[in-house]
Amino acid sequence: MSEIQSSIISGDSAQKGFTLVEVLIAITLMTLILSATVSALRTFGNTQNSLQRVISRVDEIRAVSTFLRNAFAGTVVSEMSTMTLGSGDGGGVDGGYFLMKGRSEVEWRSTAKFGEDYGGSYFFRVYETENKLFLQWQLADSRTPDKWQNKPSRVLVENLEIFNMSCWSQVDGKWRNVWNSSGNIPDKVKFVIRSSQRYWPDLVMRVSG
What we know:
The protein is an alpha+beta fold. Helices cover 33% and strands 31% of the residues.
């Protein structure tokens, strides 16, 4: 009787346990599931970071392009400006002013509003230095701007790799890399920008509306 009981007891114990092969299979499956979960979470995190970078880039492009379009659209045009390619100057405090120095610096006079309380006529300057695109401004209380040293400024674009400008005039219908006349105003301005290893969409801005 004791042998039969011992046999029954040992049989029950064998049925309740797991074999070494079953344990190894279970551990392998759990490892695969955990690896897949970790990989999915890592991919999701990278996607979120990439998406955030894209959103930040789009916001940067939108903010910079909106400001520049408004600033160029408000360019002051002298009544004496003939919109020619000559070297004439509008003259007078209320005359137009636009001067492009090479392909990386431009100055112009525009009506603008800073915040809710500050607005009026300003001289603006956009220029490239130290792999950054800067904006400077000063009140336009004379025909031409004062020296730009110590004038307020802010960074428009970080990690700048390429910055080229050109102006278009309806007189010859061509994009020009030089605009020597401060008194005559071009019809359009184009910025080509590359930053952080990516090109921006070309910014083509109409001058004075």
